[in-house]
Specification:
Layout: E1 2-6, E2 16-22, E3 29-30, E4 35-40, E5 45-49, E6 54-59, E7 66-68, E8 72-78, E9 101-104, H1 121-129, H2 149-158, E10 166-168, E11 171-172, H3 178-193, E12 196-204, H4 206-223, H5 230-243, E13 249-252, E14 255-258, E15 264-270, E16 273-275, E17 278-279, H6 287-303, E18 316-320, E19 339-353, E20 356-370, H7 376-391, H8 394-398
Parallel strand pairs: 15-18, 18-19
Antiparallel strand pairs: 1-8, 2-4, 2-7, 3-6, 4-5, 5-9, 6-8, 10-11, 12-20, 13-14, 15-16, 15-17, 19-20
Helix pairs in contact: 5-6, 5-7
């Protein structure tokens, strides 16, 4: 009996993927639920598992091909014994067609020869698949020297596995990933569709820095997570969104949809580009819960293990270019959202306070917004509300 391997449903608004890698070749024995092929979508990487035990009969698409949901990827001879690997116990043959199952790439091979035990599951899995790479010799760019998926991709490229053939002595041509293609398309669509403007302000970080320094050790001891600045900004944004609801709305045809919930996207850098995981219901969460979610998503982004559900939706986005040293920028709105807040590097600068010149840690902030739905006065007021809440965190307790 032959079973078909098809592209499963990939998630909301995802209609196609690229075949990144085949784990099995025709003639190989496969077990039920064993990963067969890796698909790269515009959001995450997913594995398609074997629907039953048997032998992989054929690939119907090659690595690098684009496929749509429901497309045929290959066929399995259910219950047959393979000549290239030990056959697994066969599953009872049924007349009904079998369907493949997609799972986010979060599981790792247990026998991976990885020296550092704190490396993420994506690294462990890649190390198992590429034994020629000495993971222990890679200088990890992650926290505490942790090797990330991006570090592994760089190491593989150095060995000639990831880079495309050079087209000249001074340049090379590398195919864009599906994620990078989507980023380019969506950002250009945003510029072409929305009437994007940006307004700026600056925030005196003195009070929030003093608050953090005073309570960070006690906070970490109680909640098991470090106290950062992003949590304060997320809380300040939610407070401002409640007062200026147009910034939390979106345009749908000739209607405006006002959101009565606050799912905030936090832009973080991953091994394949910028990703925006979404923290749900931020208005109902404590500062500790928000900080915990941010840390969790940042770790998953580094390991390349974010799921599609992690990045679906979002009513507003916060992006922190300051982590890369940016002094000022104009972030691009992530459609269908209507606004995005850009944070930047905190630097000591001379400012005038009560007629005197003093040195204060200052941060420039930028709000890019869709002028079709948000008026200039609303955008300025929104940014002022964020500024006031961060400069005086007590206002967040009072909802001011």
């Amino acid at each position: 009996m032959a079973g078909e391997i098809t592209v499963p449903t990939l998630g909301e608004s995802v209609t196609e993927a690229t075949v990144a890698k085949w784990f099995k070749q025709p003639g190989d024995a496969v077990k039920a639920d064993e990963p067969l092929v890796e698909l790269e979508t515009d959001k995450v990487t997913v594995e398609v598992n074997s629907p039953a035990a048997g032998v992989l009969k054929e690939h119907t698409v090659k690595t690098g091909a684009s496929v749509e949901v429901g497309a045929l990827l290959g066929r399995i001879e259910v219950g047959a014994a393979g000549g290239k690997a030990a056959a697994a116990p066969t599953a009872p043959a049924k007349a009904e067609p079998v369907k493949a199952v997609a799972t986010p790439v979060v599981a790792a091979a247990q026998s991976a020869p990885v020296a550092a035990s704190n490396n993420g599951p994506a690294v462990v899995k890649m190390a198992a698949e590429n034994p020629q790479v000495n993971v222990a010799a890679i200088a990890g760019s992650g926290k505490d020297g942790r090797v990330t998926k991006g570090d592994m991709l760089t190491a593989l490229a150095g060995d000639g596995f990831a880079a495309s053939p050079a087209i000249g002595p001074r340049e090379e041509r590398v195919k864009m990933t599906k994620l990078r293609q989507t980023i380019a398309r969506r950002l250009k669509e945003s510029q072409n569709t929305a009437a994007i403007l940006t307004t700026f302000n600056e925030i005196d970080m003195s009070n929030v820095m003093a608050l953090r320094n005073e309570y960070k050790d006690e906070f970490e001891k109680k909640h098991g997570i470090k106290l950062g600045f992003m949590g304060f900004f997320v809380k300040a944004v939610v407070n401002a969104l409640k007062q200026i609801p147009a910034v939390n709305a979106e345009i749908a045809g000739d209607e405006i949809i006002y959101k009565n919930y606050y799912d905030i996207g936090v832009a973080v850098g991953g091994p394949n580009g910028l990703v925006v995981p979404v923290i749900r219901d931020c208005d109902k969460k404590s500062l500790a819960q928000i900080e915990r979610d941010i840390a969790m998503f940042a770790g998953k982004a580094r390991d390349g293990s974010l799921s599609m559900a992690d990045m679906t939706g979002g009513t507003f986005t916060v992006s922190n270019g300051g982590t890369y040293g940016s002094m000022m920028s104009t972030p691009i709105v992530n459609p269908p959202q209507s606004g995005i807040l850009g944070m930047h590097k905190t630097e000591e600068r001379p400012v005038v306070v009560k007629g005197e010149i003093v040195i204060r840690p200052m941060m420039y902030v930028a709000l890019s917004y869709d002028h079709r739905i948000i008026d200039g006065s609303e955008s300025v007021t929104f940014l002022v509300k964020v500024k006031q809440a961060v400069e005086d965190p007590r206002r967040l307790l009072l909802g001011l």
